[in-house]
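In this supplementary section we document a worked example of the pipeline. Step one takes a protein sequence of length 117 as its only input; no multiple sequence alignment statistics are reported here. Step two produces a three-dimensional model, which step three serialises into structure tokens for compact storage. The input and output of this example are shown verbatim.
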Amino acid sequence: MVSILLTLNAIICVALIILILLQRSETGAGGMFGGAGGGSNAIVRNPLAKPTAVLAGLFLLFSVIAAVLNKGAGHPETVMTEATAPATPTLPEASLLPTATSATVIPVPATAPSPTE
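The serialised model returned by step three reads:
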């Protein structure tokens, strides 16, 4: 049931994106969202506004229904209850004395280089 709802939700989402992209920009937006901010008072109705609102409502409805149906159906336990922790923590063996492999040797030149003019 949830998979059918999610598939329908994906189809509605794609249709909603296409409908939104097909709509023309309105000049009454005042330059915002690509509008030119024209001074005409004529209201131009968008024929795609109602189908966009219907699809948006269906998208919201199917999302809520899928969330309610899927509530608690997954994993009742958390990751913390499934994790197995050792009884005592183990630390890696560490030595406080430096070893020969950890020390770096920087070679010193026998004579200092002469500056060239």
